[in-house]
């Protein structure tokens, strides 16, 4: 089992920043309670407030896969689909 990191970025459509903020804030606590979640921190870009960034650490790729299939993530994706202009997820391994 190898720890992995994730950087997940979501950019709200103009005018939908606060809707997206509420949605991303709503998934923080349930995710932190998931098995295998080591870190799940939400940030908002200071210079570009439409950009929300998660820094995540997971025990394994399996834990991340289970997270992706969780009910609260499915509900988040459905609710926020119309508010997101761009989303990007990068899965990383630490090399040093």
Automatic annotation (TrEMBL):
Pfam families, per the entry: ABM (PF03992)
SUPFAM superfamilies documented for this protein: Dimeric alpha+beta barrel
InterPro entries the record matches: ABM_dom, AI-2_Isomerase_LsrG, Dimeric_a/b-barrel
Superkingdom of origin: Bacteria
Domain (ABM) ranges: 4-92
Residues making up the signal peptide according to the UniProt record: none
Family matches, as Gene3D superfamilies: 3.30.70.100
GO molecular function annotation: monooxygenase activity
The entry's keywords: Monooxygenase, Oxidoreductase
PANTHER family named among the record's database cross-references: ABM DOMAIN-CONTAINING PROTEIN, QUINOL MONOOXYGENASE YGIN-RELATED
Protein known as: Quinol monooxygenase YgiN
UniProt lineage: Bacteria, Pseudomonadati, Pseudomonadota, Betaproteobacteria, Burkholderiales
């Amino acid at each position: 089992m190898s720890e992995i990191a994730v950087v997940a970025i979501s950019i709200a459509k103009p005018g939908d920043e606060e809707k997206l903020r509420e949605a991303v804030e709503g998934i923080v606590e349930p995710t932190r309670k998931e098995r295998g979640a080591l870190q799940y921190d939400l940030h908002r870009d200071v210079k570009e407030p439409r950009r929300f960034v998660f820094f995540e650490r997971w025990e394994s790729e399996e834990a991340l896969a289970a997270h992706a299939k969780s009910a609260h993530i499915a509900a988040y994706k459905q609710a926020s689909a119309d508010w997101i202009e761009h989303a990007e997820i990068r899965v990383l391994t630490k090399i040093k």
